[in-house]
Structures are given as C-alpha cells and as structure tokens.
Design a protein that fits this description.
The chain has 291 residues and is an alpha/beta fold. It has 2 domains: 154 residues, Mannitol-specific EII, Chain A, CATH 3.40.930; 124 residues, Roll (CBS-domain), CATH 3.10.580. Strands 1-4-5-3-2 form a 5-stranded mixed beta sheet, sandwiched between helices. Strands 6-11-10-9 form a 4-stranded mixed beta sheet. It has a two-stranded antiparallel ribbon with strand order 7-8. α1 runs antiparallel to α2 and α4 runs antiparallel to α5. The longest helix has 15 residues. It is elongated. The two termini are 26 Å apart.
Length: 291
C-alpha cells in the first residue's frame, strides 16, 4: 500500500484554528467525525488524553505523530493538521511548539498496518526539507503538493524503531537517586537508561536497582517509619552497568525473541552509539494487542 492512499485531501486541515496541541487533536478528530469515519469523537478524545497519551511520537521539534487504536473507527484513518505559528503542547509533556500534527487512528485489531503507517510517516518527517515544505502549506492542496507521497510504500517488516519509545528520558551517573525516583514516578517509568556526555549508554537504573539500593533505609519491625533517600546516594552507586542495547533497525520479532531468551524486560535502543529510544515488553504487548 502506498502512503499517499491514506491521506486524502479532506483529511488535511490547513491552517489549524487551534493554538494548543490538545485543541488541534480535537479539531482533527472533529474533521474525521464530520466525514463519517469516526463514530465516537468523545471516546477518541478521551483515549488521546488518557494513559495512552504517551503514544505521541515527537519526530522533530516541529512534528508530532499522535496515534491511537480505538473501536470508534472501522478502518485506519490518517489526518494532517498544519499550524504555521506552532502549538502549545506543554500540557501533553512536549516542550517544543510543533507546527505539523499527523493523527493516526486504527481499529484495535489493525496492529501491523497501524504501526507500519506510524513508521512510514515518521520516515517522511525525519527529513527537515519535508517538514519545512509541509509546515509552510496554507491549504490542503499545498500540503499534498509539498511532498510527493505517491511512491512511498509501507514497509512490510516492523522494526524496533516502529515500536520503541521516542524522546526517552535518561539520567547521568551523577544524578541523585532521589531525582531519578522522582522522574520515574512522574513519567510512570519502571527503568531509565543512564547516559554519558555523548549520549552513550553507560547502564540502566530500574525499580529493582532502587529497591536493592534503598533496602537499608526500609524501617525494621519496631522502628518508626519515615526513612528517606540519602542526598549523597547517586545513580552510579546503584545502577546496573552491564546492559544490552539493541539497534533501532533490528526486526521486532528478533527483539521480542531476545527479550524471551535473555529474560529481560527492556532494552535501551541506540543508533551510531547514541541513545535514541527505549523498548519494553509492555510496549510490544500494548502496541501489538491494543492493551
């Protein structure tokens, strides 16, 4: 299937009227509802704002790809919104002001096509010239003319890049354990990669590492509660230094087999020696099975 077949003119809103990312999503969902391809706009908006709101791929500072699987659509739907002045996205955990929003909705059973579409659009928007051309479009016609999608096909093979968490949080060896715990709680993470000055992976800190490191602080029977994390305790003191990293080009099936065979729950993902993402068992299950 060609990527251009998934983005008809009617699915493009240029320019967007909204000035926030959340407002832009509502505008795009409303457009798809008006076209009759979304059956329950409120359900879709709840999903995009709920726990799965982290399924927003930030391809570049100017581009976000929110994607969500829902029974409110019968087939895969793609909508594109363009905001020339950028959108306030801070309430969705994004500090930049994206100008291009590509919304992808799919039925819960359409795992492969859904992920292939996310990957294909991400490839398009990784090219700065494509982003700039689309961001300057003042109409759907200009947006379609900005980038030739006719020859772009969905890749049949899913890779780690198609599933992994992009824009992954990380800490350094000098980070205090208290700060690392706060970050994990705030982002609902079970583990965080530890990186050096050049974004090279030096290790990982997980819930297990934290429990092991803080065991002496847990009150014994008969003691008063209220133990605290010592300010002097650093990530380097408790992190796991031996960590297996995988390439973003690795096939998803191969990565899943490695998780099973090596009994690991997560992999830092690297490209050219630098941290680019994070892959967990729960990400694979959630994105493939819509859970």
């Amino acid at each position: 299937m060609q990527l251009g077949e998934l983005l008809p003119r009617e699915h493009i809103v240029a320019p967007l009227q909204a000035d926030t990312l959340r407002g832009a999503l509502s505008e795009l969902v409303q457009r798809l509802t008006d076209l009759g391809v979304v059956h329950d706009a409120e359900a879709v908006e709840r999903g995009l704002s709920g726990p799965r709101a982290r399924d927003v791929v930030t391809v570049a500072p100017d581009v976000v790809l929110p994607h969500y699987r829902t029974n409110a659509v019968d087939g895969l739907q793609v909508a594109l919104g363009i905001a020339p002045d950028g959108l306030d996205a801070r309430d969705m955990g994004i500090d930049s002001r994206p100008r291009v929003v590509a919304l992808i909705l799919a039925p819960t059973e359409a795992a492969t096509l859904y992920l292939q579409t996310v990957a294909a659009l991400a490839r398009v928007f990784r090219e700065p010239r494509n982003v700039e051309a689309i961001a300057q479009a003042k109409s759907p016609e200009e947006a379609l003319a900005a980038v030739d999608l006719s020859g772009l096909r969905l890749q049949p093979r899913l890779t780690v890049r198609d599933i992994m968490i992009h824009g992954v949080s990380s800490v350094t060896p000098a980070t205090t354990v208290r700060d690392a715990v706060d970050l994990m709680m705030r982002r609902r993470l079970r583990a965080i990669p530890v990186v050096g000055d050049k974004q090279e992976v030096l290790g990982i800190i997980s819930e297990w590492d934290i429990m092991r490191g803080l065991l002496p602080q847990i009150p014994r029977a008969g003691q008063e509660s209220g133990g605290t994390v010592p300010d002097t305790l650093r990530v380097r003191d408790i992190m796991t230094r031996s960590v297996l990293c995988i390439s973003e080009e690795l096939g998803l099936e191969e990565a899943a087999n490695m998780m099973i065979n090596k009994d690991v729950e997560q992999f830092p993902v690297t490209s050219e020696g630098k941290l680019t993402g994070f892959l967990t068992r729960s990400d694979i299950i959630r994105k493939l099975f819509g859970r």
